[in-house]
Write a structure and sequence with these properties.
single chain; Arc Repressor Mutant, subunit A; 2 domains; Alpha-Beta Plaits
Length: 151
C-alpha cells in the first residue's frame, strides 16, 4: 500500500459515496487508476464494506436490561426516593420502581451499547449505601404492550 492508496482510503473513510472522479482529482491520478486501486483494496480485504452513518437521533437502542439494586438500610422508603431522583437524570434509564422482596429497586435500561450499559452500572455502584447490583440483559422480547426494545 502506497501513499495514493492511503489517500484514497482517507477520502473514503470521510465519505464512502465520494465519486471516483472527485477522488482522482484529489489524489492526482486518473479515474481508471483510482478505480483499479479501489478494486484491489476491496479484493485484498482492506476495504470490507461501505456504511451509512446515522444521525444520533436515528441510532436505535439495541441493548436492553433490567438492573436490580439492593441497599444497606432498614427502610428504602425515603432513601430510594432520593436515589430515584438521581437515577432519573441518567440517560438510558427509562423507568425505576421500588419493589418488594429482597431487591429494593428495579430499573429498566435501553442503551446503544454494552459499553454504555457498563457506564451506567459503574455510575450506580458509586452510591454509598448500595450493597448489591445485578444486571439481567434482555436476550429476546416476545411481546411488550407498552414499547418495543430494538433487538
Amino acid at each position: 500500500m502506497d501513499k495514493f492508496d492511503r489517500q484514497i482510503l482517507e477520502i473514503l473513510k470521510e465519505n464512502a459515496r465520494c465519486s471516483v472522479s472527485d477522488i482522482a482529482r484529489d489524489v492526482n491520478l486518473s479515474r481508471s487508476a483510482v478505480t483499479a486501486r479501489i478494486k484491489k483494496l476491496e479484493n485484498d480485504k482492506v476495504i470490507l464494506g461501505y456504511y451509512a452513518q446515522l444521525a444520533e437521533q436515528e441510532k436505535s437502542r439495541n441493548v436492553c436490561a433490567y438492573i436490580l439494586l439492593k441497599f444497606d438500610m432498614s427502610s428504602c422508603e425515603h432513601n430510594c426516593e432520593s436515589y430515584s431522583k438521581q437515577i432519573q437524570s441518567i440517560d438510558g434509564v427509562l423507568w425505576c420502581h421500588s419493589i418488594s422482596g429482597e431487591t429494593d429497586m428495579m430499573l429498566y435500561v435501553e442503551v446503544e451499547s454494552m459499553g454504555r450499559l457498563n457506564q451506567i452500572r459503574d455510575q450506580l455502584q458509586l452510591y454509598p449505601e448500595l450493597r448489591h447490583l445485578m444486571t439481567h440483559t434482555v436476550l429476546a422480547e416476545f411481546f411488550n404492550k407498552q414499547k418495543s426494545c430494538s433487538s
